[in-house]
From TrEMBL:
Record's keyword annotation contains Oxidoreductase: yes
Pfam families, sorted: Acyl-CoA_dh_1, Acyl-CoA_dh_M, Acyl-CoA_dh_N
All copies of domain Acyl-CoA dehydrogenase/oxidase N-terminal, residue ranges: 6-110
Cofactor or coenzyme needed: FAD
Membership in a protein family: Belongs to the acyl-CoA dehydrogenase family.
The protein, known as: Acyl-CoA dehydrogenase
Matches recorded under InterPro entries: Acyl-CoA_DH_CS, Acyl-CoA_Oxase/DH_mid-dom, Acyl-CoA_Oxase/DH_mid-dom_sf, AcylCo_DH-like_C, AcylCo_DH/oxidase_C, AcylCoA_DH/ox_N, AcylCoA_DH/ox_N_sf, AcylCoA_DH/oxidase_NM_dom_sf
Domain (Acyl-CoA dehydrogenase/oxidase C-terminal) ranges: 227-375
Entry coiled-coil feature ranges: none
SUPFAM superfamilies cross-referenced by the UniProt entry: Acyl-CoA dehydrogenase C-terminal domain-like (SSF47203), Acyl-CoA dehydrogenase NM domain-like (SSF56645)
Chain ranges of the Acyl-CoA oxidase/dehydrogenase middle domain: 120-215
Keyword Flavoprotein part of the UniProt annotation: yes
Keywords: FAD, Flavoprotein, Oxidoreductase
Length: 378
């Protein structure tokens, strides 16, 4: 793997690979068919502490650099993109609190994660996808509490989360500056979840509605200040895009591995098909795209670690990696021919898994707007 990571992370990477080879890769095949959330796999991952990779040392976590974590997340994605998505989406939910939360919120959140919990980031609504400002979920101040009402949709980890970071309107007259962010724990009265979405891909991750009906939370659940929620959400997504790119790279890497393995075994015209230059060139192009995407992810995450601006780089990483995951997965299917189109082989799953990486956490069309605004200037 072409990430330059610490010795500690190299040891962890070996452990993650062994875990994924033994507990994830083959086991997820049946769950991909059923769409059931594989609780027992995640329970084993929690025993290894994999849900807490992004917890800083200050709050009891491993304190890894972002590039170190990326190598681990990619390894998970090579085994199963849905599994990696569950782990990464929990990290997504942690980011609003790390960005603007109080010390008490940060410690409480990290305690929940270290105790085996997952998080869910709740921004998208039925009428507010790419236009996140069009949300209708409200939060009304009532004494020392807020009362939340509304519905969030397509929420990763929605039904399995221990905590939720939720955007809601606190002042409709102020537009974007009237949106606030809240930290809400599982079990809060008035918070419920809908049915698990029957998705095309990443079927081992949970996706559902999160419903808020007169959900009362303490005023201390406000993350940052009133009116800062939209800005916090955008900063969150600026960071999270690189992690989406990381998982997409893992999908592409798996496609290369499967194509090469099959190409060495499949005999046509008296020789393995991998001996044909036409297919070798396919592999070369797949590798070029995958390594380029990987290095863009690493570059964006390195800039984050250094405290340098990273918005453009993160958008490029997500956009490019999502696009090439689709391309490489399609080429892997082509390498396997008719067998690639069959569910007997794993590459058709890679294509199904890939598509969402051009859509969620900001469509690739939105990423291109972000990139253009950074390059051209507003």
């Amino acid at each position: 793997m072409a990430y330059l990571i610490s010795e500690e992370a190299q040891d962890l990477l070996k452990d993650v690979k062994k875990f994924c080879d033994n507990e994830v890769r083959e086991q997820c095949k049946e769950y991909d068919k059923s769409g059931e959330w594989p609780k027992e796999i995640y329970d084993k991952a929690i025993e290894q502490g994999y849900q807490a990779l992004e917890v800083p040392e200050k709050y009891g976590g491993p304190g890894l650099k972002r590039v170190d974590i990326a190598a681990l997340i990619e390894e998970m994605a090579i085994a199963d993109a849905g599994f990696a998505t569950t782990i990464s989406a929990s990290g997504l939910a942690m980011k609003p609190v790390f960005i603007s939360g109080s010390e008490e919120q940060k410690q409480r959140m990290c305690d929940l994660v270290l105790g085996g919990g997952f998080g869910a980031f709740c921004l998208t609504e039925p009428g507010a996808g790419s236009d996140a400002s069009a949300g209708r979920t409200t939060a009304v101040k009532d004494g020392n509490e807020y009362v939340l009402n509304g519905r969030k949709c397509f929420i990763t980890n929605g039904a399995v989360a221990s905590f939720y970071c939720i955007t809601a309107i606190t002042d409709k007259e102020k537009g974007l500056k009237g949106i606030s962010m809240f930290f809400v724990e599982k079990g809060t009265k008035g918070l419920s979840t809908g049915n698990h979405e029957d998705k095309m891909g990443i079927r081992t991750s949970n996706t559902c509605d999160v419903v808020l009906e007169d959900c009362r939370i303490p005023a201390s659940a406000l993350v940052g200040k009133e009116g800062e929620g939209f800005a916090i959400a955008m900063k969150t997504l600026d960071q999270a895009r690189s992690w989406i790119g990381c998982i997409a790279v893992g999908i592409a890497q798996r496609g290369i591995q499967e194509a090469i393995a099959y190409g060495k075994e499949r005999i046509q015209f008296g020789k393995p098909i991998i001996k044909n230059q036409a297919l070798q060139f396919k592999i070369a192009d797949m590798e070029i795209k995958t390594e380029t995407a990987r290095q863009m992810v690493a570059h964006a995450l390195t800039k984050m670690d250094l405290g340098l601006p990273y918005g453009k780089e993160s958008a490029i990483a997500k956009c490019y990696a999502g696009d090439i995951a689709m391309q490489v997965s399609s080429e892997a299917i082509q390498m396997l021919g008719g067998y690639g189109y069959s569910r007997e082989y794993p590459v058709e799953k890679l294509l199904r898994d890939s598509k969402i990486f051009q859509i969620f956490e900001g469509t690739n069309e939105i990423q291109r707007i972000v990139i253009a605004n950074n390059v051209i200037g507003r």
